[in-house]
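Tutorial handout. Part one gives the primary structure; part two gives the three-dimensional structure as tokens.
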Amino acid sequence: MKRLSRPLAKESFGQRQASVPAGDSAPSRAATVRRSGPGNRPDRRRETNTLVRVLLHPVRLVPLGFLAVILLGALLLALPAARAVPGPEPLMPALFTSVSAVCVTGLATVDTATYWTPFGQAVILGLIQVGGFGIMTLATLLALLVRKTIGVRGQLLAQSETHTLNYGDVRSVLFSVARIMVLFEAATAAVLAARFWTAYDDDPGTALWHGAFHAISAFNNAGFALYSRNLMDFASDPWIIVPICAAITAGGLGFPVLIALFTSRIRPREWTVHLRLTVYGSLLLLVAGAVLFAAFEWNREETLAPMSTGGKLLAALAGTVFPRTAGFNSIDYGAASPETLMVTNILMFIGGGSAGTAGGIKVTTFLVLGFAIWNEVRGREYVTIAHRSISSSSQRQALSVALLGVAAVIAGTLLLLMFTDFGLEKVLFESISAFATVGLSTGITPQLPADAQWVLMALMFSGRIGTITVASALALSSRPRLFTLPEERPIIG
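Part two.
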């Protein structure tokens, strides 16, 4: 066993020894401190400060912030003014809807269009917006607007949510995020409102409300709709489907990618590895998903066969964009083929870009693991992407995210099989949809018992916060190892 050298340890230890007065040892002074004051106040104060530091760590504050908003949203949705259809147990639908909205998922146990009043729908919309922008990011932005300044802790909180690499850039990142979000949501809302007004005989107020709701739901990849059949009645309308798909794609790329694309003038050959992986990987998944969706559903009577050629192509586009954690649906996935459900499962689990409103393990994680496998097959010692080497820590993080995601989906699927009578195909689809914060369903969500709903809520929460963040929040302390152990190479495969 080899010990790591620490040249400054003796000097610092000697300095600490020199600071102790002669004739007064450290243990005796510690005992004096413990005996001082009634009730051991210094020790209690020290324990309180330690607990506060543990709870206020940025990695732990993000889940706590989401939990607080979820509970607040559930209380608002449980009010009689939020429900158009009074029921004997309003708390469970309110809690499930609040979790789904804050985690920008879209799964629902009740019909959003008929169960909730306009007040309840407005609460859902607010929860979607807050959840998409990020609890800590929103709080930090409000502090900037009010106080015109931000402390180091606030910057770290925003950094943990926006995934910026340098906390000194958080101020500009937050304002860029807000501008981009407002721009896309406003543009999408304008197009949708105009279409609802001119083509579907909605009055101007209703058209504007429907346009704004679906625009915010689309950009934040939430999937909530104000229609009982979601977007199935608009499957062949490009003025509805295309703007929603564009908003979903923009929100799913991630804020760092949007900021790089819209606020800088770098050429594609100068793109960073993250930018290349996100943009090119997303294009590859969109094209492959659309081709496979069309191939499996083109002549299927339950889905695309009754549509025109243009409607089929539009439905194929929606069928590859919506599973990228959006949750809208223009076909009945309960009637889709098993092959389509499998392709949708893959798209949902991969998800969209990092540091955005999309869920899943993220496209960068998937591609980093793919390149790692490719370089290992070719016998290369280092993983390289676009003439850049990928650090071992990034590879370990990608592997951890993927394996934790697989573990969460497997655990959720097993629990759902225990609590329900549905088959593996539908239960697995529901589990992946919840973990990846997609919101697509084969139609079994409203039929799930309370135990199964708790499982889906846990999957949505862990999927939105991120498996790494949840694991880090649960780890109260980490101690660096000051030595290395002898190396061995077990047989792999």
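Part three, for discussion. The chain is about 65% helix and 0% strand. The first strand starts at residue 2 and ends at 3.
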